Amino acid sequence: MYIQSKEVLDSEGRQYHIKCKKGDVGRYVLLPGDPFRTDIIARHLDTPQLVAHNREHKVWTGTLLGEKVTVASTGMGCPSTAIAVEELIHCGAECIIRVGTCGKVCDASFDESLSGVVITGAVRDEGTTIHYVPIEYPAIANRHVVDALSRAAKARGFNFAEGIAQCKDSFYGQHDPDSMPNSARLHERWEAWRKAGVMASEMETAALFVIASIRGVRAGAVMAYFAMNDETIEMACDAVRILIEQDRAAQ
């Protein structure tokens, strides 16, 4: 039995931050950070409808293969991602795929033929998830979601690696470490991630993976290098179709 978080509702009985109720959200959810990207991703669904938009959280719901699928934005960073994921799970989400962007870390990630990474796990280099579980607990993607994303990429001829992400709290700690009083530590840790073969640097996957694991839902992520592209969206939608068909076959 997985531990579920307490629902915090507004005066109309909606989730306090995402402003959704049960029935508004599908079992399958695509999770960008930017609310404006939800509009782009929602066009890939059948009959998408705008459900809610509050703060950084914009929510659309449509269908794929006749199943309800939701697109919801998290905003930037693990704190707001954790809120969105908890509240989406309260509304019925069972399989969540982050669709985002990332930077490059290790030498292999600078292969110019790569469009991005299917994330298999995350370095918990952030502060949100220690409020959930000790740091020794791994932040890992669901293997079936990873497989569906990788199969989707292969079927379309897209070149995405599989690999680990460093999930951080500070964008400028990565891009301007020398301006930080803590610069020596930042450089040392970045070199450790590089030597360890970390393929991506981003700000949300650790929260998604840890919360999904302890709440008993499936999660994965596909990240484009530097800028969102249609490949990641197409892969994520195809992966949802694969998972829908697998879930139907298992019933």
- Average pLDDT, rounded to a whole number, is 97
Domain count? 1
CATH architecture term: 3-Layer(aba) Sandwich
Biggest β-sheet strands, sense, barrel: 10 strands, mixed
* Radius of gyration from the alpha-carbon trace, in angstroms: 17 Å
- Written as H for each helix and E for each strand, in order along the chain, the element string is EHEEEHEEEHEHHEHEH
C-alpha end-to-end distance: 20 Å
Describe the structure in your own words.
With about 250 residues, this protein is α/β, with parallel strands linked by helices. It is built from seven helices and ten strands. Strands 1, 2, 3, 4, 5, 6, 7, 8, 9 and 10 form a ten-stranded mixed beta sheet that branches. Helix 2 packs parallel to helix 6. The longest helix has 21 residues. It starts with about 25 loop residues before the first strand and ends with a helix. The model has no long low-confidence stretch (mean pLDDT about 95).
In summary, what is this structure?
With 251 residues, the protein is of the alpha/beta class. It is built from seven helices and ten strands.
